[in-house]
């Protein structure tokens, strides 16, 4: 893993990294924010600093949320690190949408493992985000000493739009092994099998067999995952989001959760006057940060 650049931000440092991925067979970029607690000189910290993973939306890179979501202030407040992965494999050798649209192909990996040619060779984003990347970051940051950063065990996940979908999907798929301590989302695509963005991606990456789609659809997954304790999923969405009725449809996740262990444990907060932008995301990051800090044992 190569350090491309380090920047002072708030009380900590944003580290821009790149590495050759075995999952995507490409060079992948990832940003990591190390909070001020990482650099503290005292010995008050009794355990490794936990991590919040933020998955970005369509067309984004690791820089969008790093620059616009203001997670760093909250990371310093509570003492967690932030991981901002890329949204897809990239490069001249990576297949792209033949129509060069913005909602499929490079920048739109949908956080799944593609099975269809020509995408299967590189678009293995589920394995990359949830399996390879945590191990790679752990090896890089904790290689010379006892672990100071926890990328493996005390981890929460969140995301926006396509990334909100990816967060909920990854949380539910990894729930039995407790991969993530908590999950939240900003304006997520909750039922990709039944909305245009998701149908386009699933057909292109997974083929026409809809049974294959169910393995990555939160509305299908939630019916087969038994909730433990007081685990909840927190969702915010703006009532002026232009994609709300056609692509997001958060009410479908509430419907899917009915008569399951998740009923009343998926909280959808529809907030008046907000759209799909980072003005919306940054406004509610503090609430999501507190939610995750509690589940990570920081409050």
From TrEMBL:
* EC annotation from Swiss-Prot or TrEMBL: 3.1.2.12
- Please give the coiled-coil regions recorded for this protein: none
Q: Which Pfam families match?
A: Esterase (PF00756)
Question: Which compartments is it annotated to reside in?
Answer: Cytoplasm
Which keywords annotate this record? Cytoplasm, Hydrolase, Serine esterase
Q: Does the keyword Transmembrane helix apply?
A: no
Q: Which reaction does it catalyse?
A: S-formylglutathione + H2O = formate + glutathione + H(+)
Chief location of this protein?
cytoplasm
**Function per UniProt:** Serine hydrolase involved in the detoxification of formaldehyde.
Protein family (similarity comment): Belongs to the esterase D family.
Record's protein name: S-formylglutathione hydrolase
Q: Which gene encodes it?
A: U6500J01420
């Amino acid at each position: 893993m190569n350090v491309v650049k380090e920047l002072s931000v708030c009380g900590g440092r944003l580290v821009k990294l790149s590495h050759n991925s075995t999952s995507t067979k490409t060079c992948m970029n990832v940003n990591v924010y190390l909070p001020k607690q990482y650099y503290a000189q005292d010995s008050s910290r009794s355990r490794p600093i936990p991590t919040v993973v933020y998955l970005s939306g369509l067309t984004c890179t690791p820089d969008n949320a790093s620059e616009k979501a203001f997670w760093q202030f909250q990371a310093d407040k509570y003492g967690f690190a932030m991981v901002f992965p890329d949204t897809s494999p990239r490069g001249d050798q990576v297949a792209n949408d033949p129509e060069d649209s913005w909602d499929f192909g490079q920048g739109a990996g949908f956080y799944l493992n593609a099975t269809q040619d020509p995408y299967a060779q590189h678009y293995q984003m589920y394995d990359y985000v949830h399996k390879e990347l945590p191990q790679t970051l752990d090896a890089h940051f904790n290689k010379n000493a006892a672990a100071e950063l926890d990328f493996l065990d005390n981890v929460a996940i969140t995301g926006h739009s396509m990334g909100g979908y990816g967060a909920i999907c990854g949380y539910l798929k990894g729930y039995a092994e407790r991969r993530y301590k908590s999950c939240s989302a900003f304006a997520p695509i909750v039922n990709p099998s039944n909305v245009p963005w998701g149908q386009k991606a699933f057909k292109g990456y997974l083929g026409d067999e809809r049974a294959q789609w169910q393995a990555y659809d939160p509305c299908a997954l939630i019916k087969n995952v038994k909730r433990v304790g007081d685990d909840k999923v927190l969702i915010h969405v703006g009532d002026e989001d232009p994609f709300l009725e056609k692509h997001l449809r958060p009410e479908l996740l509430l419907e899917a959760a009915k008569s399951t262990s998740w009923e009343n444990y998926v909280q959808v907060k529809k907030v008046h006057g907000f759209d799909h932008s980072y003005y919306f995301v940054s406004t509610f990051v503090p609430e999501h940060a507190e939610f995750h800090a509690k589940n990570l044992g920081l409050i």
